[in-house]
Design goal:
This protein is of the alpha+beta class. The chain is 22% helix and 15% strand. The chain has helices spanning 7-13, 15-21, 56-74, 92-97, 109-112, 116-119, 184-193, 198-214, 360-370, 434-443, 450-457; strands at residues 114-115, 136-138, 141-143, 146-147, 177-182, 230-238, 250-256, 262-276, 285-291, 313-314, 317-318, 379-387, 414-415. Strands 1, 4, 5, 6, 7, 8, 9, 12 and 13 form a nine-stranded mixed β-sheet that branches. A two-stranded antiparallel ribbon has the order 2-3. A hairpin with a 2-residue loop joins strand 2 and strand 3 (141-143). The longest helix has 19 residues, at 56-74. The relative contact order is 0.15.
Length: 465
Amino acid sequence: MVWLINVALLLFSYQAGAQTQGSLVTDDIYAGLLPGLSAEVPKEVSLPSEFDQYDPVVLRPFFDTFSWQSFIALSWPADPDDRGVPLNPDNAAFFLASNTGSGRGVEIVWESYREGFELFPNDNSIPPEWNDRSPSRTPAGATEQRVLGMVTKGGLLDEINEAFGGPLIDQNRNYVRYEVRINEIEYEQVRTEKWYDVDVVNAAISRTVRNQKQAGVRPQEGIQFKPNSIELKGAWRELTDEDDASKFYTVEALIPDEQGNYTAAKMGLVGLHVMQKTERFPQWIWSTFEHIDNVSGTHPSFNNGTPFPPSLEVDGKPKGYDREPAVISGSLPQKTSDDRNPIQVTRALPIPSTPANYSTQDLNLEYRKLLEGTVWENYQLIATQWPRHRDERSPYNPTFNPDLDYVPSVAGDPFPQFVANVSMETYFQTNNSCLQCHYHAAAYGVDYSWIMYDRVLAPSSPTKK
């Protein structure tokens, strides 16, 4: 695809929309969306004027560009002395020369962010300072090594019953491992406000809601993070001799084995969620990436390359997986156990193919071409989700029942309606989304942050959902 604006196709594709939106769809709407390399994480989506009047499909390329720019900046090599700060930020050649696939380079920016268990210690103690390089208190004890203790998207190994679903098992019968990280803006706000302490958090929520009621604000919301707070979740799988490790961004990490002991393993990145709160979009913007070989390619991570076993179906449509393993309640099953049979995963929701020439699929081709020669050419954007009605408030509702009370308006009317990363939302690809799921945390008063809910509020809640 040539990176040029095809005016005729654009106007043809949106003729009906243009009739209802006046002259908003113009021949130069995408003129500034040229892919490039920058170490600066964008603070806002660059949108045309009066963007609220556009059809959201027309706006998708702007949000997808925001996602790709964020991905590149977050994947920039990090300053070893300053967490979250890119090294040689003005040198694109330096970025392209790092992590080329022939070996791991220096730590990247998002890896230098603090981990969830560092910000929310189990004993409510004060989290370490942002740039403290002392050994971290991890599930494996105090260590400087990378620790991947989570075997489901929702919690640590010893918190597995709070998870949202069962674990994901790759074609080598190994569990996918997860981690969550927080940027400096959010980390320092939590640390300063002492929001790692459940009593302080509950008091802050109550005070905030009370003040909003007294001021006549309707509906009330809970505590809010500052704009440009970022939370990330990474999904990793254990690489074997059968894998081409040069195609993955890799780390050496400690993972828990069947006996509960932490052992070193080479892990390859298979998925990355990025959620970023901005001034314009207080319900956050949600970007999700995957490795290109998760469900296809010559050696897929989560698919055996055949149509069998077939996907489960609902209303005649595939769910995207053949079975859901039971949530782990204790030690991990032995590798030979039937409980460790691989999950056959397919993509139930296609990567968006509209608008013509500027779809998510089109932008993936352009950015992967830009990243050619680096390990990052092996990753793709699955979707970007944002609130269409960003001015709608997210009501505080601690009695919220997700099966009965959720309507899109409480989460700003997300677009697209459903989004799923097969490495993280394997078992609810067709009926959920980032904003829909995370609104549950907002209803509990902690601003779309499951990290805060799971690590602070949930352990003391008698009515966990």
